[in-house]
């Protein structure tokens, strides 16, 4: 849960080392995952259509943040990226042995072409 009692909780009085930055990004990922969990629980706990729509959109934006942070982590720590790739290969092999096809991620070349609308995209300029 947030720790707002100390306004300087996240402040660092110096530049972080690369190793500290990597650890900070891992903590950021954990925070995003916690936010996803909380938002999803709120979506499941209400029947209010407007709240469900907005909170689900926010949850999905947090998922994108996880992807961004994971991409950055792979750049900063190539050895860790090798572990991620190894894990992905292991799961793919397990799914193949179970005759389960892994769905491919949908990609759009232009974000404006996406059918997924975000709260921000609903604001008319």
What's the total number of strands?
0
Average pLDDT: 86
Number of DSSP helical runs: 3
Q: Major sheet: size, sense and barrel closure?
A: none
Overall morphology? flat
Estimated helix fraction: 55-70%
Residues in β-strands, percent: under 5%
Flag low-confidence runs. none
Cα Rg: 18 Å
Report how far apart the termini are: 35 Å
By oligomeric state, this entry counts as: single chain
- Give the SSE order as H and E letters: HHH
Structural category is mainly alpha
Subcellular location: Encapsulin nanocompartment
Protein name: 2-nonaprenyl-3-methyl-6-methoxy-1,4-benzoquinol hydroxylase
GO molecular function: oxidoreductase activity
Keywords: Encapsulin nanocompartment, Oxidoreductase
Structure description:
By secondary structure, the protein is mainly α. The protein has a domain at 18-102. Helix content is 60%, strand content 0%. It contains three helices and no strands. It has helices at residues 18-44, 49-76, 78-97. Helix 1 (18-44) runs antiparallel to helix 2 (49-76) and helix 2 (49-76) crosses helix 3. The longest helix has 28 residues, at 49-76. It is flat, with a radius of gyration of 18 Å. The chain starts with 17 loop residues before the first helix and ends in a 28-residue tail after the last helix. Its EC number is 1.14.13.-. InterPro entries: Encapsulin_nc (IPR051429), Ferritin-like_SF (IPR009078). One of its GO terms (molecular function) is oxidoreductase activity. It is found in: Encapsulin nanocompartment. Residues 103-125 are annotated as: Disordered.
